[in-house]
Q: What sequence folds into this?
């Protein structure tokens, strides 16, 4: 007792704190545990809400969230019904947004356009007409050149156009343009037909018709003359018999 009185005050306080800490340890935690649950590591019980190895189903991921076909666009994965050679049709980008179809790869607005495909250069009876197909690029218009000189400009939605009359054999080219640059040329040689052939045929036909009319007139005149001669001969014979 005398020794305890001789201890320093701080050491005595520390001893009291340690004794009181051990006396207040929880004693109800083990009693409240469910005896049917197996203790987990470090004395903690396992939670039934957590999945165990026995509850794991490898096919559950494929069956829990099925992909419904109705949620996909109707033409998902198919090419859009878009013809680059036709005019006045809905753009491929609009078709893709509406139906989910796929468009060919288009170049961006920051790149020069690809080469358009010049399909034909022909005479339609009154002028020379060119027909081309759109490149898979961003395009703002088209330029048609004849013998290296610009002849016509057309809008981005056009796929054909008239050039007027081309009298000589010439190289006809079409280029696509946008805000960056022009594409390379797509060219075709045009050889004009002889436009005077119908006129010549008309002149020849007219001359033949006139010749036929003259022959018919001569035949009618000779027939009329023969009738007059026969009539005069018959009158003379009648007068001689009297």
A:
């Amino acid at each position: 007792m005398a020794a305890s009185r001789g201890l320093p005050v701080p050491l005595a306080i520390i001893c009291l704190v340690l004794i009181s800490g051990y006396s207040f340890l929880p004693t109800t935690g083990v009693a409240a545990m469910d005896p049917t649950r197996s203790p987990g590591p470090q004395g903690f019980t396992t939670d039934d809400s957590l999945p165990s190895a026995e509850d794991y189903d490898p096919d559950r991921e494929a069956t829990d969230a099925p992909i419904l076909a109705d949620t996909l666009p109707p033409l998902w994965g198919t090419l859009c019904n878009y013809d680059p050679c036709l005019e006045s049709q809905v753009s491929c980008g609009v078709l893709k947004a509406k139906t989910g179809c796929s468009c060919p790869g288009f170049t961006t607005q920051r790149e020069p356009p690809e080469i358009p495909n010049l399909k034909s250069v022909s005479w339609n009876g009154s002028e020379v007409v060119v027909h081309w197909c759109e490149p898979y690029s961003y395009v703002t218009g088209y330029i048609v050149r004849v013998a290296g000189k610009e002849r016509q400009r057309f809008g981005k939605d056009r796929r054909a156009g008239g050039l007027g009359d081309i009298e000589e054999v010439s190289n006809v080219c079409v280029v696509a343009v946008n805000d960056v640059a022009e594409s390379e040329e797509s060219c075709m040689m045009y050889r004009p037909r002889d436009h005077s052939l119908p006129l010549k045929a008309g002149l020849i036909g007219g001359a033949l018709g006139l010749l036929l009319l003259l022959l018919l007139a001569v035949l009618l005149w000779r027939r009329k003359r023969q009738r007059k001669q026969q009539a005069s001969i018959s009158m003379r014979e009648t007068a001689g018999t009297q």
